Amino acid sequence: MKNSKSPDTTVSRRKFLSAAGGITFAITTYAILPQWAFENPELEPNPEDKGRQISAWVHIRPDGRINIYNPAAEMGQGSMTALPVIFAEEMDADWSLVHIEYSPIEPKIYGPGVWGGRMMTVGSRAVSGYYDSLRQAGAQARYVLMDNVAKKWNVPITELSTEPSMVIHRASKRKISYGEIASFATLPEKLPAIPADQLKDPKNFRLIGNQKITRFDIPAKVNGSAKYAIDVRLPGMVYGVISRSPVNGAKPSLLNATEIRKITGVIEVVTLDHGIGVVADTLEKALKAKAALRIEWSKGAKAATHSSEQAYAEYTALVNDDSRKGRSLESKGDPANAIKMATKVYTAMYKNDYLYHAQMEPLNAVVSLAADGTSAEVWCGTQAPDSAKGAAARVLGLDESKVTLYPHYLGGGFGRRSSPDYVEEAAALAKAVRKPVKLIWTREDDMQYGQFRPICLQHLQAGVDQAGNITSWKYIISGTGDNLLASGAEMPFYTLPDLLIELRAVDHGIRTKHWRAVGHGPNKYAIEAFIDEIAQDQQKDPYQYRRHLMRNHPRALKVLDTVAEMAGWGKKLPQGRAMGIAFAERSGSPGAGVCEISLDRETGKIKVHHIWAAVDGGVIVQPDNARAQTEGSLLMGLSSVFHESITIKNGEVQQSNFHDYPILRMADIPETLEVKFIDSQEAPSGLGEAGLPFIGPAVANAFLALTGQALRHMPFTPERVLATVGAK
Amino acid sequence: MATITLTINGEKRTVNVEPDTSLLWVLREHLGLTGTKYSCGKSYCGACTVHLDGLPIRSCTTPVSVAEKRAITTIEGLSTKGDHPLQKAWIEEQVAQCGYCQSGQIMQAAALLASNKKPSREEIINQMSGVLCRCGTYMRILKAIERAAKEI
Fold it and tell me: Residues of B with CB below 8 A from A640's CB?
């Protein structure tokens, strides 16, 4: 990536607007810039044209090379390749000539036109959010090229067609390359919106759905040259580290400032609201000075009263007390009455511990405030560059337009990096020292001052009819993190006439955050495990039992049937093995999984031997990458299912590094992992998280089938497993 | 402070640091060899794996003084053109996602293949289980090592 190296190689907006030796298209989705930026580099889109979304940029060089600007963060999910594929498809670009660069951070231009136009790469929404606008933009770029040829050759545009990077006039057997067109093209004053029926028929796609298109970022990621923000080095750069409050909300008083300032290499000690920062000329000196800090923390922070193990008792009381009304997430029919009338009523509670993101690259950012204090630069990996830029500007007291942000690869995001807290901190240190500062969080900092997937408890109650089918459903969620617990609580693909879903949230003063698949992880675990417990009691096959629930939803049935067939559901298994099945929809993608497990009854260790997954993601833009994302979300899911738990005692996080917060290792992988996508021409839906919500309940359900016992507290550690099966 | 001369990827480099400074900070922050990554700082995750006289070590907990007079190989020096069979296999299998752990994965795998040209699946898993990947690319790491082993 050109612009991930250093500021002088970064393509600024202005620079590429006025780039010599080629043309740059600014493409509007709906219409039409009054004057093209190309013709006047200083011109911004008319601010009065509200509702206009400028969605993409492409630059073509006379030699045919094409630069496409990617507006999304690249955190491993591959959309820096997928988004340009969508654009290039409609533009009919020769993919071998395409080079990808980050777009500038200009949400009005590069925002996706949905979710408020913000440049956020979250919720598996990059491909689905940009799909229509980038197809439109690509088609408009193709139109501009053809229009220029039509004028040059004096032929009607309707007689022209394209082949990859080539405009063709069949009648006169002439053709001309996009690069050649770039040498004389002018941009029209107005661009037509290309009607949907003039976009490519999906069956003619060459790039979208092409198995052979590889990720743009991978070569640099195997030779060490890929640049993450933590790799940035600038002339005169110094290093910042911060000792943060062990209990969220506690304020620091530094007891030995004089002593710290005397340490060789220490440049500045900075008191922040939530910690003490040390800036030194090398990282190792900064870390040594940090270790020497003696800080007294204020008492009385709200979080200090919270201990996670005790919280479950509070949640249990809360979900059982209907006088404590929470927020209704969905309500239909008369569930209270329906449960009274049911032939049999089932009740169960499920628990989910706090989870930590554990992205492999600890948080970090580099911020440089200009010597005159009037402008600043930020180097960071972020899922939300616009809010990171805004946060830096606020801390530095600058207008946002005076801050330039250089996006870098993210060494994992998973929701953590849509928070700009680490950028704010780096800005505060840079402001104090007026030198470029690289702020690094140690792994311990990253874990102990984490923003966690919230702890929660799910209380479920269901009534069944005489045939044993579920007809009424009461679902009460309690825990911290408020709205983070709501995602995935609803069941849009199950037919349940009487239903109540309610959230009774508590605020413990603990930092919480979106974590890959957000509430879908805990909610789908509870829902899907509960369904199997009922099916088992009713002596029904859990696959068929789900088929009945999703009888009105063919898309859901299709993924469930597909995965059952892949796994050979119902076949005879070796002694000591069992299969579990589960279903979930995340980011608009219905998905289902089956896993086959065994249990070591001595150690309590569950072994997953095989995983099968079927997902309907609509049109699959990059099939191999989509498969990789599903594999990744399944394995990260398994990691959380077996290993991960943050516990908090009197407000303090008890874990500090990977020895006491273990994550999945290669030793834990299944023997086989098979993924299938449903053949579909629906618009794409999200695939970055789709595998995660159903793997947990698939494991729990296999365990139920194997042992007759239900696992109701995630993660399923050996201790909890042994307690459940009553061994030892 | 001490003046320490290191041999990294066949080149002599001199740094002026405290002898207990980790090799990782020296490589990354003093010498700009940023392909080797910091992640845990305690030898739990393997992201910082480099070779010392051909053996895989965790540079985050290795004092730079230990590495003096020994041959250090980092991801930047694994091959001349990024064409080590493992690097090619990593691209063929499209292994990397966020990519942050992959230098460590490849260096660990390269040390395995250097000592065991035809490792079994079990041997690969044993050797690789100390290098963590949060994105969950393990299935592809395994395939890529098996592919590279065929080419060596």
Answer: none
- B141 CB within 8 Å of a chain A CB: yes
Tell me, yes or no, if B13 comes closer than 8 A to chain A by beta carbon.
no
What CA–CA distances, in Å, run from A79 to A75, A100, A387, A620, B58? 9, 11, 20, 12, 32
CB–CB contact B91 A223 (8 Å): no
Q: Which residues neighbour A566 within 8 Å (Cβ) at sequence distance 6 or greater?
A: A594, A612, A614, A674, A676
Name the percent of chain A in helix, strand, coil, to the closest 5.
Answer: 35, 25, 40
Domain total in chain B:
2
CB contact B139 to A (< 8 Å): yes
Contact call for residues A478 and A319 (beta carbons, < 8 A): yes
User: Is there a single domain that holds both residue B58 and residue B98?
Assistant: no
- Mutation for B interface: A221, A408, A437, most B CBs within 10 A: A221
The reply to whether B59 and B110 lie within a common domain is: no
Q: Are strands B49-52 and B55-58 parallel, antiparallel or unpaired?
A: antiparallel
* HSE-up of residue A51 (Cα within 13 Å, Cβ side): 2
Q: Cβ distance A86 to A549 under 8 Å?
A: no
Same domain, B89 and B137: yes
Q: Is the ipTM of this complex over 0.90?
A: yes
Q: Could you tell me if A269 and A222 are in contact, meaning their C-beta atoms sit under 8 angstroms apart?
A: no
Give residue B53's region: left, alpha or beta (phi > 0; psi -120 to 50).
Answer: left
Neighbours of A466 (CB within 10 A): 8
Are A298 and A641 within 8 A, CB to CB?
A: no
Q: What is the pLDDT of residues A439-475, one digit of tens each?
A: 999 999 999 999 999 999 999 999 999 999 999 999 9
User: Strand A605-615 vs strand A672-677: parallel, antiparallel, or unpaired?
Assistant: parallel
Q: Which CATH architecture has domain A229-300+363-440?
A: 2-Layer Sandwich (3.30)
Question: Cβ of B134 under 8 Å from any chain A Cβ?
Answer: yes
pTM (2 d.p.): 0.93
Contacts of A63 (CB under 8 A, 6+ apart): A179
Q: Which of A533, A532, A461 is nearest to A496 (CA)?
A: A461
Topology (CATH) of A308-355+452-726: Aldehyde Oxidoreductase; domain 4 (3.30.365)
**Tens-digit pLDDT profile for residues A180-233:** 998 888 877 666 789 999 999 999 999 999 999 999 999 999 999 999 999 999
